[in-house]
Each structure stands twice: as structure tokens, then as C-alpha cells.
Amino acid sequence: MDTIALILSIIGSLNWGLVGLFRFDLVAWLLGGQTSLLSRIVYTLVGLAGIWCVSLLFRRNALAEREEY
Question: Radius of gyration over alpha carbons of the chain, in Å?
């Protein structure tokens, strides 16, 4: 699950980079526009993956603390 979340987060960050630099939304272009069902599903999955990745920060810190003892 962590790997999938990281891949989706990377896809999302690359897409936002394209939007910021070139005003080009790759997801919308590939999937039929920002309001298409497929695009909305991808945007939702990327958002959920970002939330999941927040948990990686806390698990990494907890693991590091356990290794110190």
C-alpha cells in the first residue's frame, strides 16, 4: 500500500509541476478533461495517496525512535 501511495503521489506532483510551469494538466489531457469521471477518480486517488503518505512520516519517526533504544 505504501508503494502505491508513493507512486500516486509522484504522479500527482509531476502533474502539478506541469500545471504550474506550463498550464498543462496531463491527467485531464489523457482522461478527457478535468470534469470527466476518470480524471476525477485519478484526482481522488492521488489525494487519498497524499493523505496516506502523511502516515509514512509518523511511522518513520516511530521506527527511528525504536531503533535508538
Answer: 15
